[in-house]
Fold these 3 entries.
Entry 1:
Amino acid sequence: METFNKPRQRRSRIYSSEARVAYICLIPAFLGLIFLTYLPLLGVLGISMTNWTGLTKPEFIGLHNYIKIFTTDPYIKESIIATIYFAILSVVGSMIYSLFIAILLNRKIPARGFFRAVFYVPFVLPAAAIYVGWSWLYEANFGFFNYLLSEIGLNKVLFIADSRYVVPSLSLISVWLAGNLIVIFLAGLQNVPVVYHEAAEMDGANGWKRFRHITLPSISPIIFYNLLMSLIANLQVVTPALSLTNGGPGNSSRFMTYLMYDQAFVNYKLGYACATTFIIFAILAGFTAVLFKTSNRWIFSEGGDDK
Amino acid sequence: MSEVAFGRLKSKKRSNRTTNIITLVVVVFFACLVLFPIWWIFRTSLMTNAEIYKFPPSLIPENWLFSNYEKTLKVFKFWKYLCNTMVIIVPSCLAGTFTATLCGYAFARLRFRGKQLIWALCIGSMLLPTMVTLIPLYIGWTRGLGIHDSYLPLILPYFCGGGAFNIFLIRQFIMSIPRELDQAATIDGAGYLRILFSIIIPAIKPAMIVVALFIFIGLWNDLLQQMIYINTSDKYTIALGLTNFRGQLKSDWSLTMAATCLSFAPGVIFYLVGQKYFVEGITMTGIKS
């Protein structure tokens, strides 16, 4: 900034040409923010107060859709429970798994790049294909997991055709897919200053203590980031239901986004589906808000280092 | 260094070596676990149906029946689906990366009125789940613009900045480049766009490749929107084609798995090609987010 001590006139001319370039650069973002984000968001709210089916003219019916969802909808309760159940299992599972693998990969082992690539691979496979592939591993009679169970003398389990097991089975797949979290954790771990560890070691801190008091606080912003991203992603889960279970068996995997899809694009109750959308949005926002609220209690920030 | 301390250092070195070996063993074990499902799918794709149902199942196929793939390709129009998918992905990746770079540059380097507000709106939209805007956007594309059974609703959004998250990544990355570089260029008389193209873009290539990869993976994984916007089987993408194929061939597992493996291939290839940049890029960007 100190280079700009020129006459005011000239400075504002520079400034305006700079602003012009900026606005030109931002045209795509403007369009996106208006037409793809904020107008549709208002649209959800507006449509949710109508009885629009896509065929007839929409009529304004106030909060009727919301009342109906909370009083008579046969699916919403099970759907919310299934989604939260799935999200918690997946988020907890994938956070533990990815942090564990990242810590291992952060040690001096040969071919680290290769292993990192291996753990990342599931993430680059198309989701639809992953669920089709895993449906074979979970197959009721000849699937690999049932072979394992029979080897250790247990009865066969209908993994994705049994309402008790379908959500945990699908969560296992999403833990398996958590390679992106590993890469991000690993990047965070590599930024933990080695001097801290050395100093603590001099003071006689053992491995666990160093992990608990140095590593964890240092990567707490990364933990928060990964937690947030995987929570938002897993609460929006829909692909397994679309490609594999169709919400079943029963309603045990009728996840919220699938419920919305079903209402809007199978039954054409657009107004009603928008009300569902808004409720899902509120739940997601609630989870996000709680996470942000509690974050300053456990995120360690390095004071003055932040820009 | 005292004798005792030296001894401790030596024993520490030895214990480090053993823990490193244990670590390696554990890592190899988990890597095998992660790869196992893929191998199981692959080996199934090379077997006869009789061999699949054999008990106990074998880990390695007896005869590697690559002819299964020929059979699969006759019913599963993989090349067509791949072309269709690429028709969506290529323009989306190019446009998304380019517009995200433009926007990221404006936010990172340029001063203009309303920057704070626009940036806040941008960050805000990052937290907005994509499923929320799905129905209004669908109505907008099909009713408002009369676009049916087309790839445009899947592609055009990427011409609008490629998503707030990608803009954010590029911005963070540009901010880590020393300003002295562009100041020197300014003194040499380069305009803002000139600086972007001749200084910033070459410097942020890894970040741009990460963004392209994210867009690629996003589209690759997105079954929901493809299901909504694409109706005719001629226009099916890999994800749609495979989901549909599985419905038709419920019990022919070897052909289904062959189709699954075919669908895996492009992602793996794309990743292996971009891997170097990708890891480099995410290592730099992941920290700052």
Entry 2:
Amino acid sequence: MSVKKINIADGVEGFYIENNRFNTTLITYNFYLPLNSNNMATNSLLPFLLTSCSEQFSDYIQLNIELLDLYGADISCSVSKCADLFHVKIGINVINNNLALLNDAPVSRAAELVSDLIFAPAVCENSFKDADVKREKRKTIERIEGEINNKKSFARTRLMEEMFGSDPYGKFIYGSVNEVDAITGQQLYSAWQELLSLAYVRIIVVGNEEPKDVFTLANKYFSSVNRSFNPEMLIETKYLPETNTPTDITERFSVTQGKIAMGFTSSVKGSLKEAAALSVFSDIFGGGPYSKLFENVREKQSLCYYCSAASRRTKGFVTVQSGVEEKNAQKTIDAVLKELEDMKNGNFEDSVITASKKAITDSLYGYNDNATAIDIWYSREIGEDISPNEAADIVMKVTREDIINAAKGVKLHTVYRLLPKEAE
Amino acid sequence: MKTEIFKNSLLGQYSKTVLENGLSVYIMEKPGFDSSFALYGTKYGSINTKFSRNGGPDIEVPAGIAHFLEHKLFESEEGDTFQRFAKTGAYCNAYTSFDKTCYIFSCTKSFNENLDILLDFVQSPYFTAETVAKEQGIIAQEIKMYEDNPGWRVFFNLLRTMYENHPVKIDIAGTVDSIAQIDDKLLYECYNTFYNPSNMFICIAGNVKTNEVLSQIEKGMKPHEKVSVKSAVSSEVKEVKEHYIEQALEVSKPLFCYGFKDIPKTERVGIKDRMIAGITLDLLCGDCSSLYRRLLADGLIDNELSSEHFQGEGYSAFIIEGESDNPKAVAEEINKEIKNLIKNGIDTRLFEAIKKAAYGDAVKRFDSTDNIVTDMQDCAISGGTLFDSIDLLGSINEQDILTCLEKLTEPSAVLSVITPRN
């Protein structure tokens, strides 16, 4: 596997990741803008609008028929937070030309289709069309209202809101129903223009043939955009300060099983070495089945069905999530904190360090077998540009002391409890 | 030992070998890959609650026992299986569905060591009264977690309203009451019945050498008593119990599952009929169908409908799921569209495009060792080959679709709805 970097325009880079293991080619456009609470709802709605229709394919159904004809090519669209950047991904995955039943060059057609959706949307007089905007607003509002259906992710969303307060990182990415209601076609048009002119853009292709068409097309489209990209927006990340008075919030819903979400600050501030130590810490703490939370809180004490930890290195925090009965909620929180103290005191076996490093690196070495994983890797690791294998090498060098130091930097910040209503 | 090779000029080849003890082994070499994926499965799932062993009388066991056994098999006298895999860095997991229980691992290094662990722990049951009691608490929590899951509830409410006798109507994990009846003796009885090589299969895809793997598996086989097992799946009636079921949960918008019950003519639905069912559902309610367009325009739905042909031993149903403020109106529209398609025929252009997409989807499956192994497991359970979905596609015609649509009748339909609590 090789990675070739191509400069397409100011702040627009092409990444061709040659990989001949797949029957398909994956093309993604990745846009990055500074996170901003004020325009987050609009920016989150925009890519869903762009991938629902275009000037050429006037509605979703026309577009879907084209996708069926492209051997079932999949359009993907997502929004996420990448440290303090807002990340939009629009992509297409299509079978390689040599597997086509007809001589209809699916890869080139897919490249044209995805660029067409991004650069030639269905707009009229500096605005997106009312019917399209209305439809996508309705879908986004459903997405927001539907968030409550999955209590595990809802608990995490609420934890992030409470933990980060006014920092836009804590804001639910799709915004509120009121915010979405108020979005207009003109605002979306301005957001689209900003996305094309201000964002850092990374176009990633994972496939077995150099995708000249993809980069030539991107070059053609970006040459007609008035770019004013500011590289400084890629640099600074704000980290949450630790607190001596953790917040503890309880909300009640009509559920059978309660959820607990705990948020911790850490001392990691972006360095790859520190981040690797934090990821090994978090894996030993509550990642794999050999972890302290799995082994002690779930298996030995049977306090819950799941109890796991995760770290987000780019923003330097750790979360623990658990599904519990109300009577065990406080016991579970106490047990999690006890395990954290144990980690700080170095009470874990060397064999667990080896196991954790092996599990993390095994997963990293497997990235090359999965086009989506490769794409996500190169779209999340902006500014670092290291390969999964290089990241695995850094993980292998993490020592016991590094893990204890990472643990010592982890401090409880917020506890969020989602519990059954008392009457039930 | 008997080996068959299956080939496709563009997508490669794989082998199926039946060992002397009856175990079926499927292997696809993917030499360019870094990782390998392995699965050890048994044709034993939640529906196998009544069976006879070696021609003896029918035995009935509590619901949820296959899933319980899956949890318990991870423990052995030497300790927890997760810990053994942890030493190699492999990812391991297991799952139980209606008709199978599977144990899996994936890794980029130490494949042989991991395969030895897999072979060993699946063949080494170890249950005690204490470990069984502890697991009852954990599984009860898992069952409660699903009680709050609207997507899960809407589906199982449909099944228990659709089926009178078939155990497919019971949750895979059983109930808190049924799992309370499970003890170590029952677990051994079920293990000794269903975990015998002739009822089991191993599927592997990745950077492996077929002959080496086969010889390692043969060496890793423990002696097994020859067992014949006959599943006594209760015969199912044609009629559904009720046509409508509703439950209130904390959801923002009603969820629905609209299903049509079909009694399979043979024990299992064949591969071609499964493909026809998938294409039929796409034509009827996929995101390019005229029904979908109409439902969107009428504001009855905002998002795509999803559909599946749900089938296994002795059951088959066509199920359409979605969200709507008025699920009953959606169901009526679905019924109208079925009648319309039967009367006026299907859209030929769309039919051809869906077949082209089905070809692309089948090709894409070969990009992932995980998907290859999942599909091999389907072949082990339901028959057919990995290349059937490509080879048979050309033979499916419009009449096949119309014949399939005839099965979707109103008397065979059930609508299950989850409504918002307030």
Entry 3:
Amino acid sequence: MTALLEVTSISVSFDGFKAINNLSFEIGGQELRAIIGPNGAGKTTFMDIVTGKTRPDEGRVRFGEPQLDLLRLSESQIARAGIGRKFQRPTVFEAQSVRDNLMMALSNDRLPFAVLGYRATAKDADRVQALAAEIGLSGELERTAGELSHGQKQWLEIGMLLAQDPKLLLVDEPAAGMTLGEREHTTDLLRRAAETRAVVVVEHDMEFVRRLDCKVTVLHEGSVLAEGTLDHVTANSDVIDVYLGR
Amino acid sequence: MQRSLFARQPSVLVFISLLAVFTIVITVLSEGFGLGLVSTSFVKILGKTLCLCLVAIAMDLVWGYCGILSLGHFAFFGLGGYMIGMWLMYERTKDIVIASLAGAELPPTAEEIREGIGTQIFGVVGGSEIPVVWYFADSLFAQLALVVLVPGLLALVFGWLAFRSRVTGVYLSILTQAMTLALSLYLFQNDSGLRGNNGLSGLQNIPGLTHLPQSVVSVWFFLASAFALGAGYLVAAWVVSGKFGNVIRAIRDDETRIRFMGYPVEAYKLVVFTLTAVIAAIAGALYYPQAGIINPAEIAPIASIYLAVWVAIGGRGRLYGAVIGAATVSLLSSWFTGGQAPSIPLGFYTIDWVDWWQVLLGLGFVLVTLFMPKGIGGLFDRLVRKDAA
Amino acid sequence: MLRICLVLIAALIALAPAHAQEGNLNTVLEAYRANIEKPSRTTITPVLEALVESQAPGVAVFLEKWREKELWQRKSDGRFFYVSKADGGKLMLTDIATGEEAGLADAAELDNLKPNSGVRGVIAAALVQFQLSDPDPERRLQALTALERDANQSHLSILRAAIESEQDPAIRTRKERLQRLLTIKFGFDQATRVAAIESFAGDPGVDARAALNPLLATSIQAFDAVPEGVNVARILTPGRDIEADAAYQLLVDAGKARPIVPLAERKQALVTNIRDGRVGGLPVAELVTQEARDRAYLALAADGSVPPLVTADERQEAVAGHVFAEVYAEPDAALTEAAEETLADINGTVGVYRFLDLALDGLSLASIYFLAAIGLAITFGVMGVINMAHGEFIMIGAYTGYVVQQFIPNYTASILVALPLAFAVAFLAGVALERLVIRHLAHRPLETLLATFGISIALQQIAKNIFGTQARPLTSPSWLDGAWVVNDVVSISYIRIAIFVLALVFLGLLLFILNRTRLGLEVRAVTQNPRMASSMGINPDRINMLTFGLGSGIAGIAGVAIGLFAKVTSELGSGYIVQSFMTVVVGGVGNIWGTLAGAGMIGSLQKLIEFFNPSNTLAAQTYMIIFIIIFIQFRPKGIIALKGRAAGD
């Protein structure tokens, strides 16, 4: 099985500070992966590089089949190639309705003139209904997104990501600020999503990671420190050093 | 699922109806076609105001919906005016020159006519050669095309440069302001080929229609302006009501997020920026024949800032807000600065509105920004909500 | 009379041994009495020669008095005296040779000699040699200045003679320089002139160029063959170096070709030859192209009723058959060659100095932009807002200066009061604006921009209502008048130096505040990460207020500085606001060095563009803005950008 995303020896530094240091990473087509690491380990910068927000100083990032060189694409091109990203803070378009939010996310042509002439088809409407059902917002389609609760916004955002139908989903701290019930719902959503695509979850919260029950990559000072099951990595002495402090 | 534009935006129908009624009433009352109750000069003021409303709609589209605070859209407006002004002035001068040479013993050659036109138009800037930018000035259709093409291309090139380097927010505003300043300074030069600070004049005289009195011409332009405003409003409403409108509002609210959803933000901005520049240029091309004169001072950055002020006072992000703002402020402005507003004697000092209107406008605008962020249009929201409740 | 004679004789005897070879002034005057009585330009030459030859003391004084029409002649014996007013309406005579009093006389007994201006000119020229060797250095300098302005051939040898005895090194240098300049112009032999010319290589003085340029004056002439015996600068190829029409006109002027009948005359000829609606066989109505008119004219010319048309072929042939050349007025090729080379060398040096001058200009403009923009940059960096009323704070500063001068007439004192007062007034205005408006628009930068614009138009109009539309003067103290002149090319006015110093002072002060004080620490913290800063106990509200006040206060100072050389009007600030924005954008936000770099770049760039296109400052600004728009393409965050995640979105 070839990897969906292949990150090879990337490094990047800001003002002399090495945020990512010779990092390599791979993930397959249908896989759920958690990335953990202390603050400043380079988790967010890693996602920035994959999604095109930050350009690495060196290294390669390849994606998909046939392989695309992500370093040559813009953020929106990368997104259209099939990488979806969920930010730490829920960012939905608060002034617009839940339906409009989902409609915008549907994987249709995204170029301006196509969008200008766009008319929603019955298929699109059904898809929006189905997505709303999956994220539990069926009753809220006409509501303005800004009126939703924090958790509902998180789900709406995940729903928008699913609507994009990405091959790879990058999720930054999805459980932050959620109640226990909401966390369980989120875990389900992610695990189900990973059945058909690759999902990378960046998380602080060990309990949440345990619940995801997947392979874990530990980042430290911009490189991979350990990789394996959660039990495997938590037994690793380096990881213990980093987390418990020396 | 598929609802018509009017169903999605009921205000559009209301606006178009009101505009139609207003247009018919003014035409009926005008000197040119009707009862003569509305003077020709007031018809001109109203016609010009309609053009200003149109450019305000363009501004609302680019700022209120797409979040680009452009301080350059009045420059596109002015460029549109210059493009049509070139034809008006050239053809009119040509008529004059041919008339003046008609009595000569030898019939004039084409060169002599050109030389006569050149001397007439460019004598004030010490030239008689017709500059190369006037190459198409004898063709109405070419100049009409240029009304769209020149501002459109300028917006396209400038927008492409600015957006691709991810200049946003106040940076972008300053950059557009710089572009406007550069353009007006360029036009202020005598060797710009557009008569320097003299600008183009006599534009109210329409070549070929000189037999018509101004009272009739003014009504025609008023009608054309009303039609353009209606059409512009419909186009803008169509653009903002669908998914495209949702995307550009999303760009306004969170550019990064919509970019990571795969939308090429720069392309959207460029489309909106260029489209609105073209709308502004068309408004300008209708405005200046009614104003009669255009000069580089019209294009100065402050004019574009005023445009933003109108839209802000009227209410951003709603098309009728832009129209209300532009109409209210520009009409009030000409009322106050025209010396028609009564002075207020305070005993020790008399407030003369010609001097104090700018102060009132400036402070009033600050108050609107502070306490009525949705502008006058925001008041309608309250009315509508009351009805619903 | 007798007594005078006795005295004179006594004096002669007394002086005789010492001045055996020197003539007595009075004897010379006596000898040339007729010429002095009725002088003309020709007749006074021997008088002057004799006077100079006599080397008698007092000749210089005599010449001066004579020139100044202060020489009198006694009618009774024809002797010359100087006179001065004495009691009783009488005149006191003074002996010319001895300077002693020679008795009283009535005005009626004397004639005042008034030589005409031509004669006085000749006297003045003769006087030069005395003045050039005058013991008073002040007078020697005066004489030199007069000579520099206007000299003739005769002065050259006089000047040469006056160099040897010169003891003052500065004056000697000047004399030598003038001697070389005059040699270029009036020298007799080629070698010395060439040497004099070459001695000016690399000299940036205007006088050197003024002396060399006339040597290189040329005129364009037409010759039948390659010219000989004239000093040719270069041969001109018609069509490339000289337009064919102009070349033909030269031939016409030289009588070597037939004159062209001008277009207007040809048209007139056609008009006068219209017969029955036809001219030259063509109906008048058909003459709507130049080509048709030419045909009609040729037809007329064929039957001789109008002068013949000079055809294009004929013109071409005439031009091709002659040689056109630029010819020096100066016949000596060695001289023109030396002058050409020296001038090229001088122009090289002048170029270097011009560049230096340009750099100084750019520096002074940069310091103005720095002062105008730094306040804007600080507030933008700390609060992320653009203050469109910043220009009006500059204006407030300038008007504060003007008002202070109404109360304090001493310009030095008033400026010293105005600077802190302008800071205080603008500071308060800034704090008020921040408290009343900007604070309420936090995190809405575009609204802030527009609201401050509202303030800007209101303030501008208020200023107009108070102070009127005409410009108000803000006069600089007299010690700031004038300029520091390095040489004829490089100079910079003291006001600009003062503004440069002011900018340096504020650069230092701001660096100190930001890097060495608690306030600066907090400001930097808020600039880099406002959320973190506030969680660390920094009150961002207070920081915002203080930085806004500080930024506005500096704008007030900039206003005083700008007011010193520009006119104080209500539009003063808006003239600088766009440049200030550009400075901030180009320099990069939130960094003093960035603003400095931006100001330096914009200032020098503007001067550079003006240098290439000096007649058109409008175009210069246009090009500069276009350049900035392109610059932003490559450095979107400015020259000095904050990097990393702190820069944020």
